Amino acid sequence: MSKISQRRALLMAAIIPAMLVAGCAAGGSGTQAMKGAAASPTDMPTDMPTDDMMSPEETDTASPTGTDTASPTDTAGGADQPRSAVQGFFDALKSGNVDQVVGAFADDAVVAVDGEATAKGTQAIRTLFQGQLDEMKQATHTIEEDRTLGSEDAVVRATSKQGGDNLRELFLLSQDGGEWKISQFMNNQAG
Q1: CB 44 within 8 A of CB 53
Q2: Residue 64: Cβ-neighbour burial (10 angstroms; 0-12, 13-18, 19+)
Q3: N-term to C-term CA, the chain
Q4: Cα 57–63–66 angle (5° rounding)?
Q5: What is the pLDDT of residues 119-168, one digit of tens each?
Q6: Per-residue confidence (pLDDT) for residue 149, from 0 to 100
Q7: What CATH architecture does domain 3-189 belong to?
Q8: What residue spans define the domains of the chain?
Q9: Are residues 82 and 173 in contact, defined by beta-carbon separation less than 8 angstroms?
């Protein structure tokens, strides 16, 4: 397993369960299941490397007032770049440009879209979205939260409405040649 794949696996193992548990513990409607914060390093298993991890307070780019603020881990491009990368993906969906959609993803990205087989890699992602672009042109998207996780990783949580479906969406992004790319994307029904 490559160093990048290991880092992504650790990131997924640390963030996804914490976000889901926090959301489920909040109770309420299905839209709450992905709300919550990533676990702090003290909540992490002791066998995980923590020398380059930061607490949610240090990595959260969303301020209480709803405006973005720079975090100490931001690269030269600023805190909004992961958010901008996801917004670029949403804009590509609305324009129906499959090349731009695929370009938003890392070459080895994994996409798990509700009701579809998991797509791994550029060609599988192209095939997945090519068949869905017409219905996605009318979708509305809202980015709910974005966090940088160190200098090379970020997580963005969003919601979308496609036809009568309300979806929760989670994006993991990584720096790829100085540019933020989506490395993992999953969505499911909000309830």
Answers
A1: yes
A2: exposed
A3: 36
A4: 155
A5: 999 999 999 999 888 888 889 999 999 999 998 999 999 999 988 889 99
A6: 93
A7: Roll (3.10)
A8: 3-189
A9: yes
